[in-house]
Amino acid sequence: xxxxxxxxxxxxxxxxxxxxxxxxxxxxxxxxxxxxxxxxxxxxxxxxxxxxxxxxxxxxxxxxxxxxxxxxxxxxxxxxxxxxxxxxxxxxxxxxxxxxxxxxxxxxxxxxxxxxxxxxxxxxxxxxxxxxxxxxxxxxxxxxxxxxxxxxxxxxxxxxxxxxx
Length: 165
Prior knowledge:
about 160 residues; seven-stranded mixed sheet; globular; alpha/beta; 6 helices
């Protein structure tokens, strides 16, 4: 059986989203038969997307939206992948200062355009950063939230390995 590939694409500015993406990748790496690729959004290319069997997309919420460099990743890869990913599974991680819902909706709309299948609702971790100082400060994501990210990565990898997705 050919190994499956899970691509984790993320952007981070204050470290919170990186911690979440790394936790998801760590959880997925525990699944035999699944190769995990962890790439920052500016590094990820259309061939990375096309070469993967499933995805975790992780972004901070910036100005009530998906981070610009994450949007850039989708802009660069969108047309090359259109109609070539149909039915592949994905999960979303959002590191938010408030509710993260708009960033999640944006990602969901893009994934719908790619005809991907969400395996779970977006996992949104709220840091409650509301002042300029708190927004710019490096983030430390709590153990319980990181555990949820690991579980989501592990579930996606297990589904890939078992052929459920």
